[in-house]
Design brief:
5-stranded antiparallel sheet, binds flavin-adenine dinucleotide, 4-stranded mixed sheet, Uridine Diphospho-n-acetylenolpyruvylglucosamine Reductase, domain 1
């Protein structure tokens, strides 16, 4: 029988997480077929091992060695489907495809919509988990359905976008106890560009590139250029992007805060809520640029925690918890950690 998944025992996870923290897992399994994924899950069950799913590792904080089987879905493939009745272009991407490369591939085929989400690290399979978003666009706008292996019912399922529970940096997949292992995402993209340029310097970047009538691919390039300039490259400075979500508050509570702190950025959000800029709250508690050993808050981005080299996941988490307590004490606002915190209870 050919091996259906690759298995590495006592696996080193340091290069598999963008924080670059040192950690090991009892085992690491990689599978590039649906059968292989199921076989790896069965193997974990036969060994009594918990399973942790890992994509590109750019939105996790590993706190200690994992007494688990870490499973990396490596399914590849981009499939162009027949146009939907709504006239939108349908394309299915397998979970192991690199997100940024996939965005580039859609634009090369004249399918528009994902350009503002350029250069977000990670894989297609993780994109629905926190409904990735950037530069005024959230993934949910372009998802038709998610295909996943349901670990409870032990079968592959198709979940329509309306049933994915998408909201700001959130989806049902974040709350279903790892029930769904995503194997592919089907997108509904547009044949005609509807550019969103009024966000965080995109228009200015296009102007500086001398582009007066941008095409989606120009927006993709502009967003990539801004991100490369502004965000720390995990290959050089370990990080997981924004470490905290922007808090959502009832509008009246946000207004009271704004009256007390006129500089606080407050944006209208869905369901009568207001969104506060977490970075502003952290900066105004004095944390920007703070460093404790190798665990630190980025010099330019109060929202980004970084690893200067040898910080452990535990040290980064401890720093995050101090920031949370401080923001709570000063502003009465609870900050929620954005990356998934991975840890083994027995080893704590
Ligand atoms: C420099 C930098 C900038 C970033 N900028 C942004 C940004 O602008 N917007 C944004 O939204 N995010 C951003 N992120 C966060 C991150 O890139 C995204 O969340 C991305 O989707 C994570 O993909 P990944 O493959 O690395 O997931 P991982 O970190 O490997 O996993 C993240 C979560 O998804 C789960 N998961 C992964 N694959 C699957 C699967 N196939 N099935 C089920 N569960 C799965 C994991 O168990 C984990 O809970 C940034 C990160 C970095 C380092």
């Amino acid at each position: 029988m050919t091996q259906r998944f690759e298995l590495i025992r006592d696996a080193d996870l340091q290069r598999l997480n963008s924080f670059g923290v040192a950690a090991r897992a009892r085992a690491l399994a990689r599978a590039d077929t649906r059968d292989g994924l199921v076989a790896a899950l069965d193997f974990a069950a036969s060994q009594g091992l918990r399973v942790e799913v890992l994509g590109g590792g750019s939105n996790v904080l590993i706190v200690n060695d994992l007494d688990a089987l870490v499973l990396q879905p490596q399914l590849r493939g981009i499939e162009w489907l027949r146009q939907g009745a709504d006239g939108r272009i349908r394309v299915r991407a397998a979970a192991g495809e690199n997100w940024h490369a996939f965005v580039g591939a859609t634009l090369a085929q004249g399918a528009c919509g994902l350009e503002n989400l350029a250069l977000i690290p990670g894989n297609v399979g993780a994109a629905p988990i926190q409904n990735i978003g950037a530069y005024g666009v959230e993934l949910e706008r372009f998802v038709a359905a998610v295909e996943a292996y349901d670990r409870v019912e032990r079968r592959f399922v198709r979940i329509e976008a309306a049933d994915c529970g998408f909201s700001y940096r959130d989806s049902r997949f974040k709350h279903d106890g790892e029930r769904h292992l995503i194997v592919a995402v089907e997108f509904a993209l547009s044949a005609s560009p509807q550019l969103l340029l009024d966000y965080a310097g995109v228009r200015e970047e296009l102007r500086s590139l001398g582009i007066a009538n941008p095409a989606p691919v120009d927006v993709y390039r502009a967003v990539s250029a801004i991100r490369q300039r502004k965000l720390p490259d995990p290959a050089r400075l370990g990080n997981a992007g924004s470490f905290f979500k922007n808090p959502l508050l009832p509008a009246d509570q946000a207004l009271r805060l704004k009256i007390g702190h006129p500089g606080l950025p407050v944006y209208p959000a869905a369901a009568g809520l207001s969104k506060l800029a977490a970075g502003w709250l952290i900066e105004h508690c004095g944390w920007k640029g703070y460093r404790d050993g190798d665990a630190a808050v980025h010099q330019q981005h109060a929202l980004v925690l970084v690893n200067h080299g040898h910080a452990s996941g535990r040290q980064i988490l401890a720093l995050a918890q101090r920031i949370q307590a401080d923001v709570q004490a000063r502003f009465g606002v609870e900050l929620e950690i954005e990356p998934r915190v991975l840890r083994s209870p027995v080893l704590q």
